[in-house]
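Provenance and format

Records in this collection were gathered into a single text stream. Each protein contributes a sequence line and a token line. The two records reproduced below are adjacent in the stream.
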Amino acid sequence: MVLLSPSVSALRRLLIICEVYAEAHGLKYNVAKSELMVFKVGTKKPNFVPPVTLGGVALKRATEFKYLGHVVTEDLKDDKDIERERRALAVRCNMLARRFSRCTVEVKLILFKAYCQSLYTCALWVRFTQRAYNTLRIHYNNAFRLLLGLPRYCSASGMFVDAHIDNFSTLIRKKTASLMHRVHESANSILNVISEKPDCTFLRHWMHVHVHVSVASDRQPRYMK
């Protein structure tokens, strides 16, 4: 369960409501697994945050937290979640290459689609450096080469076209469009705020994915906004 609040006092009120509900229903929160995160506003970071307690125990403050498999950080940047996906992709790819090396090309393509094209929560990536994004893209290309036994320096665009497989950019656009469509069609009032607000960060990024490809130098990594 996640509680979001604009202030410490409001968060304390929410926790009191949770404690009252838990006591009335014979439940108890696990304080050891509960954490507090304070999101930065631009470059501003509070020097002191008053203690927030749950069941009389002060919650530990965290700088990052994995929620439903997605890494959330206090600066709201997605580099660490992209790195999580890069590691997961490397593990899956090595497993496939080791266990199914003798399979036919058709079988390998099916396995690649099933295990290497998930890119979990990639449509939520909004603020990241181009370096982190390119590293994942290169690993995606190399995973395909490794599984199919292709030369390391063969054309990435050519090999995907020949195999009728989506390249990295196409895959990101499809997953972004899918999430965007589901948000627009949702009856949830919170999601409606996102879909109906033109200056929403997510909405602007989703449109950006389809109309522009950002280029950033390695010396000055730029964040997608």
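Adjacent record:
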Amino acid sequence: MDSELPAYGIGVRHGQVALIFSMVVIMYLINMAAPIAIVAMTTPGTSPNPEVPAFKSWTDQSLVLISYYWGFAPTQLIGGPLTRKYGFKKFMVLSMVICSIFSMFLPSLVIEYGSKAMIFVLFTIGFYQGLILPMLSDFVSKWAPVRERTPIGTFIFASKTLGTVFASEITGLLSSSWWGWPSAFYLYGMIGLVWSIFMIIFGYNSPEEHKSISQAELEYIRRGQTLTTKRIPWNKIMKSVPTWSTWISQIGIVWTIRLSTTEFPTYINRVLGIDVGSAGAFMSITYLVSYFFTFFVSSSSQYLINNNYLSTTVCRKLCNGLAAYGSSIFLVFLAVFRLNRFLALLCIFFEMICLNASFSGYNINYNDLSPNFSGCLFGVGGITSTIVSFLPVMIVQYMVTDQSSSTQWGYAFLISAIVASVGTIFFMLKGSGEVQDYDDIDDKEDEESQLLEKKHLK
């Protein structure tokens, strides 16, 4: 049996993982710079340098920040089909180069054309980064051995959290320095261009393309893989109940993630009475601890799977359950009980840690269901959850009219807990960690699947 064969040690696959890991970190440096820097951009005197511009007359800050997701949402759907046909390397390099250039030109464009220029730039960055996210699943399918799928997949997906931590700290420091907020966009753009050079030289679409991979490592990676270049069976995918259960669970969990990452800083400041700087520091520490927690979850899950203590299905359900129900419990505590400042912060801390278990849940589950079409599955879940995740922000905007009222915030927290819990019920009942029938399709595909694929590739 495959599980009885010895594992291959450190190899070229780890270099490829490091490239993709660093790419995701840089992506989040670039896209998270705006939400942090916009405070300094609209607050005169943030930098001691009087030459650093500030735009205190801007009244469309919410529109500016949401413009990234207008571009990000739709392109997730085509990222999977594109990488299957052309590979992911060229699109990753293209995306990073364009996003880096736009990041470096953003300060000049904003100074010249105002907030409308920033909306255009963030929309463009979102557009190209949306292509890349589903390609991460395709990378995991090709480069991660089955025995290492959970830790490698989690390492890559969870790097979004690390990128957010770095963006928060570095952007804040640069914005308040003599160089001011423009320096953050210049720095991240330059880092992105340097990464692109490394990816062009050292990146490969698959182990088979790598020039120096050993035969032993190649066989180890291939072990248990059944990859194909056949057409995407959209019709069969849409009829798969386990696939739908993962999509629905993703929507519920991403709803809670968006609420937590977007609204908790305001809640901490207005309800708990903690200053903005301390609230930011608390969130950064929480992100960092959450990031390291993902490695405990992923390594434990893979150990249990490799040693046949638990099935892949059970492990994925446990991780998704921890993310959805664990976070919901702490949201309910915040909503129902009058907690003191310490206990409230403790609930927020553990709520966000629980959410990160989803990196070993629905995020990697697409690779379980279909190693061949995981990028396509992730793209459908990504565009749907991104669009739906606008709702918790809108609910807070219209429901929380008094930001210092813990009661009003409690309603938003309860709704989020219900959405996450109900969505994950479907995954608990119908979710699976086994390869689905549509992953190994016949040469004779139904006409509807072919037409659907052509439509998505246009």
